[in-house]
Amino acid sequence: MKAVILSGPEQISVEEVDTPTVQFPTDAIVKVSHSAVCGADLLPFHGHTPGFEFGMIPGHEFVGEVVEVGSEVDGISVGDRVVNTSMTSCGTCSECAAERWTQCTTRSLFGYSGVYPKLDGGQAEYVRVPNAARSLLALPEEVSSEDALFLADILPTGYAGVDNAGVTEGDLLVVQGAGPVGLMAVIVALSRGARVVVVDGVDARRELATELGATAITPQEARDYIDTLTDGVGADCVIEASGSIPALKDALHLARPQGIISVIGAHFENDFPLDNGVMFEKELTLKFNIGNPFKTRELLLEAIRRGELKPGRVLTHVLPADDAVEAYTKFDNKEFTKVALTY
Ligand SMILES: [Zn+2]
Ligand SMILES: [Zn+2]
């Protein structure tokens, strides 16, 4: 089969590899139609993931058709059109029993290794899906694959950022970073009737945020803009979706007293100079969130089905898998806001 292979830092190629087969009775094999490139794929792409095993297939956001199921797979059948959860979960460990599925003791992230046990991803014609009854969600006909793709990872992540910050109608929310994850937070917050100000340095991303219904400004404008808008009080909530240290520092100043800073950008720094004075004086809450597709995918699927959420609007480019090099390069340099490959 045809697969995207990450063979070394910034070395992407499309190659012929063996087609995966069922290895455990709880596995399924999915014939992929669409798989997205995620910002998290850029970390191993740049060689920034400690212990990552090069030579594997990336991709933790995919939609396709089930072509084979193991003997113990319940609820998912051959012929179903499905979307995955970015991480696998076993359903039986102590973390799963406590419904902390993203912290499952045997979790793997599709297309990753090093941080998690190795599991080939979905940027390929076929992908093996462990614990398929949990790792796959069957899709109704009326939901497009372009919308469904976002249920794998970044729509649940955006939702977690908004929901864990308790955003409600009329709240003023600042979203730092209008990459795909930040934009998912934007569409969820707007669907709740929040007022959303997006902060990003890239013109095309600000334009897309504006089209979605947010106000978009540059990082340089952020502090003065929010000060003026709120008489110096600050925003009810700040969602840090860029994964950058300057943004996280700025967030403390953009939030109002007793405000919430909800982080959905990926951070891997071992140290951060947190301004405890500001944190204490303003009684701020700082939360970090990993999206939990297994927990929220059904309610998000329903919201898509009802037309309340249209995450596919963020998918700016869809390319054949043969153009994977272009997809990675242009996504990395922010020419593509969100890109999917087709097979
Ligand atoms: Zn991702
Ligand atoms: Zn588990």
From TrEMBL:
Gene Ontology MF annotations: oxidoreductase activity; zinc ion binding
Keyword Phosphoprotein: no
Entry keywords, A to Z: Metal-binding, Oxidoreductase, Zinc
Source taxon at top rank: Bacteria
Annotated Enoyl reductase (ER) domain residues: 7-341
Pfam families: ADH_N (PF08240), ADH_zinc_N (PF00107)
Cofactor(s) this protein requires: Zn(2+)
Entry's family note: Belongs to the zinc-containing alcohol dehydrogenase family.
Protein name: Alcohol dehydrogenase catalytic domain-containing protein
Species of provenance: Leucobacter denitrificans
